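Q: What residues go here?
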């Protein structure tokens, strides 16, 4: 009798992911349907002078083309401001070539953050905000590539102070291998639906790291990048801090492109594990609650507990159909990405990987980025070994 009660309770809990999937479908449909209901992409007349801030370190794939896309903006007045760690950085010749190739574009290169901070990216941003020529700011990662309408699209929600910040989705420039296709499935079937559920339930209290538009005034209200230069997840913290001060953070259906910078399964695993470990420290209860969104292990458990045709069909088919529907709704319909149908078979593989990473994240006390280990103490990054090669303190950023 007791075993039957336990089994029935577990079968009931195994339906929780399906409820989450239904909510994700509803949230995603509402978001993209609202975007489509608006008139076609109007050309925004809100064009304040803007500073593009790009902290860089090392050479990303297709770095020149990524940077050049920011110099081809259909926008009246803007600057592109780069900050590199030192003159030995291999990206510096690429930036110097950019200055030569785009003489009509105002490009400035800063060397060094001038700060002592664990999060090198954020330290660079702190300096760039101080050095920026304009009030309106657009922050982007070095692996981002954009279209000529990028600045107009990102700045439009800030017109008249309607929003304190804006952020948008990002899609890969190409998916040429199994690892990149798997990562793409993770974004379309898992990450973006989760973001849209969060927006539906609690509003947008975050920003997505590849690009954020805001102003100096909004950053100054919470102390700016200098106040978070020793913390991970700066994109989440910037969006949250701006939202907590009563300003709307706009999530746009606009898409930018990112160039994949990993080529192996191990790199994908570690990148995702870093992020999940950081989230476990910043949002412990939310991280634990992910247990009830993991449909694959619960569906398998249900079919193992009661391997009847009804359970096999009910749980197995419901899992596959709902996951495919989420992916197609977000990827094919919402973000208009080609080839989503051909990658649907990778969803169970991604879900198995995501479940494993979630479990492993509870065992991690440190994270590793670019050869350096960090501890997370009181939501701050602390180098696990304070000195690196040559006796120099090591610091970098967790993506």
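A:
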């Amino acid at each position: 009798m007791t075993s039957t009660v336990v089994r029935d309770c577990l079968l009931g809990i195994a339906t929780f992911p399906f409820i989450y999937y239904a909510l994700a479908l509803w949230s995603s449909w509402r978001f993209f349907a609202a975007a489509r209901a608006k008139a076609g992409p109007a050309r925004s007349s809100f064009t304040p002078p803007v500073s593009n801030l790009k902290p860089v370190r090392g050479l990303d794939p297709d770095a020149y083309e990524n940077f050049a896309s920011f110099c081809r903006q259909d926008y009246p007045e803007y600057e592109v401001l780069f900050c590199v760690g030192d003159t030995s950085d291999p990206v510096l010749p690429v930036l110097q070539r950019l200055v030569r190739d785009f003489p009509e574009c105002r490009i400035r290169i800063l060397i060094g953050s001038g700060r002592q901070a664990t999060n090198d990216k954020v330290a660079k941003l702190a300096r760039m905000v101080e050095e920026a020529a304009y009030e309106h700011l657009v922050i982007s990662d070095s692996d981002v590539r954009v279209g000529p309408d990028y600045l107009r699209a990102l700045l439009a929600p800030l017109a008249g102070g309607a929003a304190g910040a804006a952020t948008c989705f990002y899609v890969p420039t190409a998916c040429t291998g199994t690892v990149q296709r798997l990562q793409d499935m993770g974004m379309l079937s898992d990450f973006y639906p989760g973001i849209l559920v969060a927006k539906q339930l609690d509003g947008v209290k975050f920003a997505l790291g590849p690009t954020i538009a805001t102003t100096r005034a909004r950053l100054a209200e919470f102390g700016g990048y200098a106040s978070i230069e020793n913390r991970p997840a700066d994109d989440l913290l910037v969006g949250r801090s701006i939202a907590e001060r009563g300003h709307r953070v706009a999530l746009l259906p606009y898409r930018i492109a990112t160039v994949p910078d990993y080529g192996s399964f191990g790199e994908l695993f570690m990148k995702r594990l870093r992020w999940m470990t950081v989230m476990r420290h910043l949002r412990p209860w939310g991280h634990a609650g992910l247990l009830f969104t993991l449909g694959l292990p619960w569906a398998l458990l249900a079919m193992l507990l009661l391997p009847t045709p009804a359970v096999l069909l009910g749980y197995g088919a419901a899992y596959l159909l709902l996951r495919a529907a989420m992916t197609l709704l977000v990827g094919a319909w919402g973000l208009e990405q080609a080839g989503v149908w051909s990658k649907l078979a990778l969803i169970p593989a991604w879900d198995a990987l995501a479940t494993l990473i979630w479990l492993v994240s509870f065992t991690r006390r440190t994270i590793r980025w670019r050869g350096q280990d960090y501890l997370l103490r009181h939501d701050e990054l602390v180098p696990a070994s304070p000195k690196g090669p040559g006796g120099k303190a090591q610091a970098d950023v967790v993506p």
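A: Context that may help when evaluating the design: The longest strand covers residues 249-258. The domain at 38-264 is CATH 3.90.550.10 (Spore Coat Polysaccharide Biosynthesis Protein SpsA; Chain A).
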